[in-house]
Amino acid sequence: MRGWRAPRALLVVAALWACSEPTDPGPEPPAVYETARFRIVDSTRSPQPLIDSIADRLESELDRVLALLPEFPEPDTVWTLMLVDGKGMGFVDLTDASLWQWLDDLDLDYLPHQLTHLLTGYARRPFLEEGLAVWATEQLLPGNSTVHPYRGQPPHAWVSLFQDANSQIPIGVMWSAFNLGYAYDGSSADASAWQLFIETGSFTRWVMETYGRAAWFYAYDLDDLPAALGVSEAELEVAWLAATRAAFPDPLTCEEALGTRGPLGTREVFWCARARGE
Ligand SMILES: [Zn+2]
Question: What was the pLDDT predicted at 6?
Fold first, then answer.
């Protein structure tokens, strides 16, 4: 077991700050903390208990992701969590192995998703990488129906719902999707990206449970679903959609599901229009 090793050190740098001119202090530098396997760069100067809770969650979620995905080598570099003021979508920057989190949008239930991306290095297409990250989240946070992107009901239930309006994104379209077009304030492209996340997570789970985990990872390595699974794309699509429908024959409506966390915002209105096939 790898664990949390206290104490964390505050690296930057109260002493330098104290030497600044008192009349013109300039921006306060971020506080930098080290955990066993992460660096937290805190531009928000948040209180220590919050930093401690983030550090503990980072370490524990990485343990869980590593245990879930032994197919990938353990990281040999320190990953960075950038904590910044404001509100926005957390994201992963693979160029410097960092996670970005906004203080007013600090959804740590998204960590399994983000840590999965850092672990794999996002070496394959979004269909495979996002599917694995959503599947990992569902495995590690079972019963959690609030985590992005499948708020309100599980991915299979969403895919069942999409079939009501025949609005599901076909496997072939998802397979070719690269520019996912996220927009925090909502857009049609953002709605398609949201739906793609859900469908890839559902599809990944179905393949793992139907063909076995080794088959899914063979497809991941081969970058070719029909060749890896020995089934045509059309047959895969029919069987997957039927399985989600059978598992959730009576899904919540989009508004019911997203409304479980309060009124819908602009972004969610786009999502529900997409779900209705508009
Ligand atoms: Zn992702």
Answer: 36
Instruction: Say how many Å lie between the CA of residue 130 and the centre of ligand 1.
Output: 5
Q: Helices 126-140 & 111-120, crossing angle to 10 degrees?
A: 130
The length of the chain is 278
Instruction: Tell me the CA–centroid distance for residue 232 and ligand 1, in Å.
Output: 26
Q: Which residue has the higher pLDDT, 203 or 149?
A: 203
Side-chain-side CA neighbours of 9 within 13 Å: the count stands at: 5
The Å distance, Cα 205 to ligand 1 centre, comes to 16
First to last CA, the chain: 49
How many CB atoms within 10 Å of residue 113? 28
Compute CA distances 96 → 12, 30, 60, 61, 81, whole Å. 20, 18, 22, 20, 11
Higher pLDDT, 12 or 102: 102
Distance 256 CA to ligand 1 centre (A): 24
Question: With 70 as the cut, is the pLDDT of residue 65 above it?
Answer: yes
Check whether 192 has a pLDDT greater than 70. Answer: yes
pLDDT digits (tens, 9 = 90+) for 153-172: 999 999 999 999 999 999 99
- Please tell me the distance between residue 117's alpha carbon and the centre of ligand 1 in angstroms: 7
Which residues sit with Cβ closer than 5 angstroms to ligand 1, an ion? 130, 133
Look at residues 6, 87, 118, 88 and name the one whose alpha carbon lies nearest to residue 52. Answer: 6
Q: Give residue 47 CA to ligand 1 midpoint distance, Å.
A: 29
Alpha-carbon distance of 241 to 97, in angstroms, equals: 35
Provide CB contacts within 8 A for 38, sequence distance 6+.
55, 58, 59, 62, 78, 79, 80, 81
The Å distance, Cα 46 to ligand 1 centre, comes to 26
